[in-house]
Write a structure and sequence with these properties.
The protein is built from 5 helices and 5 strands. With 131 residues, the protein is α/β, with parallel strands linked by helices. Strand 1 (3-8), helix 1 (15-26) and strand 2 (30-36) form a beta-alpha-beta unit. It starts with a strand and ends with a helix. Bound molecules: [cytidine-5'-phosphate] glycerylphosphoric acid ester (C2G).
Length: 131
C-alpha cells in the first residue's frame, strides 16, 4: 500500500485544496493530511484561521480522498512523520517548490501545480467587495 502525506492549513476550504488532495491520493492508496493547528498557524505562519482546527479537521475527514488527518504542530515534524507513518510520497503545491527537498532522503517528494485562480485571500477580497 502506497502511503502519501501532505501538509496545510486548509482554511476556508475551496476547490484548489480539493484538487491537490485528489491528485495527492492518485499517487498512492492512502492519504494522510497533516493539518496545521491553530497555534502553529498563528505562531509560525501568522495565519488567523476562520475555522478552528477541529472544524477544519471535520471538513477534511469528509473528503473522499483523505484517509487520516493528523496535527501539524511545527515545521520540524516532517521527517518524524514520514518515518512514523511509513510514507512513500510527500506532496505539496508548487508554491513550496524545493522547500522540502531534504525529505528526498526518506521518500519521494512531489510538488504539484497549484490551482491558480483561487485562494482564501481572493475569496475574502471578493466577499468584501460584494459587501
Ligand atoms: N493549494 C493549491 N491551490 C490553491 C491553494 C492551495 O494547490 N489555489 C495547495 C497548496 O499548495 C498546499 C495545500 O493546497 O499544498 C494547502 O494550502 P494551505 O492551506 O495554504 O497550506 P500552507 O499554508 O501553504 O501550509 O508545512 C507546510 C505548511 O503547513 C503548508
Amino acid at each position: 500500500m502506497k502511503r502519501v502525506i501532505t501538509y496545510g492549513t486548509f482554511d476556508l476550504l475551496h476547490y484548489g485544496h480539493i484538487n491537490i488532495l485528489r491528485r495527492a491520493k492518485q499517487l498512492g492508496d492512502y492519504l494522510i493530511v497533516a493539518l496545521s493547528t491553530d497555534e502553529f498557524n498563528w505562531n509560525m505562519k501568522q495565519k488567523k484561521c476562520y475555522f478552528s482546527y477541529e472544524e477544519r479537521k471535520q471538513l477534511l475527514e469528509a473528503i473522499r480522498y483523505v484517509d487520516l488527518v493528523i496535527p501539524e504542530e511545527n515545521w520540524e515534524q516532517k521527517v518524524t512523520d514520514v518515518k512514523e507513518y511509513h510514507i512513500d510520497t510527500f506532496v505539496m503545491g508548487d508554491d513550496w517548490e524545493g522547500k522540502f527537498d531534504f525529505l528526498k532522503e526518506y521518500c519521494d517528494v512531489v510538488y504539484l501545480p497549484r490551482t491558480p485562480e483561487i485562494s482564501t485571500t481572493q475569496i475574502k477580497q471578493d466577499l468584501n467587495k460584494k459587501g
